[in-house]
Every structure is written in C-alpha cells, then in structure tokens.
Design goal:
Blueprint: H1 4-11, E1 17-21, E2 27-32, E3 36-41, E4 46-52, E5 80-81, E6 105-112, E7 118-124, H2 128-133, E8 138-146, E9 149-158, E10 164-166, E11 168-170, E12 173-175, E13 182-185, E14 191-194, E15 200-203, E16 208-209, E17 214-218, E18 225-229, E19 234-241, E20 245-250, H3 252-259, E21 271-278, E22 284-286, E23 291-302
Antiparallel strand pairs: 1-2, 2-3, 3-4, 5-11, 6-7, 7-8, 8-9, 9-23, 10-22, 11-21, 12-21, 13-16, 13-18, 14-15, 14-17, 17-20, 18-19, 19-23, 20-21
C-alpha cells in the first residue's frame, strides 16, 4: 500500500486534496475546495464527511464515537455495502453487508473540475480472504465528486466468463436536526419490506415520519427522495440511477443503546439513513463481460 506521502506526491492537488495517516495507521483523504469540505478513509473507500460551504451543518453524519481501526467498519458516513446486502444468503460467518467497507482500496485517479469540484477514483483491492468469499473475477471502483453536490458512482465490472448476482448499497448516514422533526418524502405508494418485528410487505402512505425504530427496504423504486428537516431548515435531495431499492433506517433508543457507538446518549437522534441500493427483490445480475453502475447525487437546499 502507498504511504500518505506517496499519495500526496502522485494524487495530491494543492489547495484541494491531501492525504494523511490517522493514528490507527489508516490513510484519510482530506478535501477542501471552493464548494465543500470532505474526508474519506481509503479502507472501505468510506466517505466520512461532506459539508457544502453554503451549509452551517454537515450534510453527512459521523458518530461522535466513530473509531478508525484496521478491518473494522466506521459508524456513520457512507459505508459501501457490496457484493451482498445484509446477511450472506448461505454463509452466516461472512460479514454483514459484504467486505468492501472493511477492505483497503487503492487511489487510481484524482482531478479538479473546471467548476472547482474535486474528483477521486478508487479501486477495491482483492486479496486471498476476499476471493474466498467472492470467487468471481471482477473489479469494483468508486468515483467520488465533491462540491456543492456530492456524486458517487459505484461501478461493478464482471471480468470473468460467467454471470454473477450482486446486492449493494451506499449506506448513507445523513445529518439532521432531530429525527422527530424530520421526514422523508418521495416514496409514497411504494411497497417495502418492513424489517422491524419480522419481514412483512407493506405499502407506504404519504411521507415517512419517525416515532420508533424504522428499518424498511423499499423495492422497485428509482424515485428521488427528499429529507425534509424542520429543525435545520433544509432539505437534502437524493437522486439516483442504477438503483431500484431505497433503505430507510433509524435505530431508536433501545437498539441505539445496544449498538453503543452512535454517540451516546442521543447521537442517533441527529441522523437518518437513506440508502440507495439493490437489495431483496432488486439484486442485480451482471453478465460476463459487462458492468453495472449505481449512481447517487446528494444536494442540500435551505428553506
């Protein structure tokens, strides 16, 4: 793996993009351009923060108790769930949500756009352990464009001679004022699997409001979603392509207490997950020699 110094020499952009080594030994990319600030851990290609300079509050939530550690996922930000979502279908010993979020990625390109956005492209590094869990020849890349809008492209290329099926998600934690004063619109009339208290297929009526634990996988929807935040007086717009599932999650008090890393005692109230995914009914078959791309774009609006 390259050192932070080597990465700065090869990919650093003066006044925009630099790399540093965290006390954990992991390397973090730091972005500060005319439009936004952001940080990304190369383990997991895990975006940890993003704050447009037009906003007084970050748009992406990172737990106060988040820790960087080799081989461990980070609580908050944008974990990359791949090549399966949730538990593995047949191997209970395999990690939930796949291995991409805890495996090193390699920077392969960086650049600055004419409008001032910063672009970073990373590729997942396969190893003996990952090949044992996923024996299919393929490459996985993530292109992150950071500016007033945050755009993320997750590209799966099947380089083998056989088709394979993936589940995936950009498991984004959004910063809100308070979960009781926020709602998610855009999924009216969509069917969803309700994962709280069993898995039951239901239909969404109106906007999603929160008053208890919520864990839902909305299926067969490519709709744009909007997080409407009365306390911070803003909207976060979530547009996507190449994704037919949307996951909405908040743990609420009992589950947050059990998890223990959500910024106790009430850090969980300042976040909601709205994940652009292909899960459950919407897993994706990637034919040999082809690729699949999941794209999300996040944009904030003050109201």
């Amino acid at each position: 793996m390259s050192t932070a110094q080597q990465l700065n020499t090869q990919f650093g952009i003066t006044g925009q993009l630099g790399f540093r080594e965290d006390t954990s030994g992991l390397i973090v990319a730091e972005i500060n351009n005319t439009q936004a600030t952001a940080s990304l851990c190369l383990q997991g290609a895990h975006l940890m923060s993003w704050q447009p300079k037009s906003q007084a509050t970050p748009a992406i939530w990172l737990s106060r108790d988040a820790k960087l550690a080799v081989g461990k996922s980070i609580r908050g930000g944008v974990p990359v769930c791949w090549p399966w979502f949730g538990a593995h279908a047949t191997e209970p010993g395999f990690p939930a949500h796949g291995y991409a979020r805890t495996t090193p990625w390699q920077v392969i390109e960086s650049g600055s756009e004419p409008d001032g956005e910063t672009r970073l492209t990373l590729r997942l590094l396969a190893n003996e352990k990952t090949r044992a869990q996923w024996p299919h020849p393929c490459t996985l890349e993530l292109i992150v464009s950071i500016g007033e809008t945050l755009r993320m492209e997750l590209i799966t290329e099947n380089t083998g001679s056989s088709d394979f099926v993936i589940g995936e998600a950009l498991h984004t934690y959004f910063r809100i004022g308070d979960i009781g004063a926020a709602r998610v619109s855009g999924l009216q009339d969509c069917e969803y699997w309700d994962k709280v208290g069993g898995s039951e297929l239901k239909k969404q009526q109106g906007a999603i409001n929160f008053s208890s634990e919520t864990d839902r996988v909305y299926i067969n929807t490519a709709a744009e979603c909007v997080i409407e935040d009365d306390q911070l007086k803003r909207r976060i717009r979530i547009a996507k392509s190449g994704s037919l599932s949307t996951v909405v999650w908040t743990p609420w008090t009992a589950k947050a207490d059990k998890m223990g890393d959500l910024g106790q005692p009430d850090g969980w109230r300042e976040m909601v997950c709205v994940e652009s995914a292909n899960a459950f009914d919407n897993t994706v078959r990637v034919a040999a020699g082809t690729s699949h791309t999941l794209i999300v774009e996040y944009r904030t609006e003050s109201v």
